[in-house]
Amino acid sequence: WATDRAQVLAPSTLRKLVSTLQSIYSAAVLDRLVGSSPVVQLTLPAAHRERIVPLTVDQVRALAESMAPKYRAMVYVQAGLGLRVGELLGLQVQNCDFLGRSVRIDHQADRDTGEMVPPKTRQSRRTIPMPKVVANELAAHLAAFPASPTGLLFHTATDRPYHQAFYGSQVFAPAVEKAKLPAGSTSHDLRHHYASVLLAAGESVVAVAERLGHENATLVLRVYGHLVPGSEERTRKAIDTAWDPPSADSVRTGRSS
Questions:
Q1: Per-residue pLDDT tens digits for 97-145
Q2: What are the angstrom distances between the C-alpha of 251 and each of 63, 204, 255?
Q3: Which residues, in sequence order, are bridge partners of residue 161?
Q4: Under DSSP, is residue 199 helix (H, G, I), strand (E, B) or coil?
Q5: Which of 75, 88, 91 has the alpha carbon at shortest distance from 172?
């Protein structure tokens, strides 16, 4: 079964399916429904994750300017808060504390129905600092396009949240092409942009995980580890200092030994 599925599925997808099957058989063994699990000693194809190349600020700005005015703020909000697309589409004005400069995420728009549902995980319920660019764009957006009666910031003429498929294919994809961004760019790339900016500024991996609503920092390290600024000079300095500590005279004069 695993060999057959390996011919048509991506390695990462196959590994998830095998892991699920392993869990099923492990439970069956505990319940004494089977004597042992057959999901053992499998050789699976290696799963290689392509390194993410995040969009730059100029690219994000070009993307936003390639959209119709009523959609433009959606790019700045997602790039400036690192939201999942469902969280973006379900964002309500009552979630935004302009005085305290923060945004509270406690629900998202369902992919299929558009109804407000709980976030993806428990950690996805979070409060995110609101940067000035997001506050300014939201203020301008609300002045031109008032929120719906339920407080939705981004909504259709019938006061419903935009459908994810519509936003992705009819709004986002054409803007990607118009802005000449890398082919295949999606709204999720704005989330990558957010993480890359925080890491480049020296924000801790733990803090980035909290902002993104991840359960732990492991995923951040696995996906964005190559974006963490290098620490070669700090490494050299640490070892040099340990092996050749500065003398008392050099400390007083500010010179190294």
A1: 999 999 999 999 999 888 999 998 888 999 999 999 999 999 999 999 9
A2: 52, 30, 6
A3: 155
A4: helix
A5: 75
3 state SS of 249 = helix
d(CA 215, CA 43): 29
* 152: its two tokens: 């939705």
Q: Give the CA-trace dihedral at 137, 139, 143, 144, to 10 degrees.
A: 10
For residue range 4-19, what is the model confidence (pLDDT) as tens digits?
988 888 888 888 899 9
What is the Cα gyration radius of the chain? 24
| pTM for the predicted model, two decimal places | 0.76
Find where tokens 């929120």 sit. Answer: 147
Lay out the sheet containing 126-129: strands in order across. 96-97, 102-105, 126-129
Contact 14, 5 (CB under 8 A): yes
Give the Cα separation of 206 and 220 in Å (integer). 8
With 0-12 / 13-18 / 19 or more C-beta atoms within 10 angstroms meaning exposed / middle / buried, residue 39 is middle
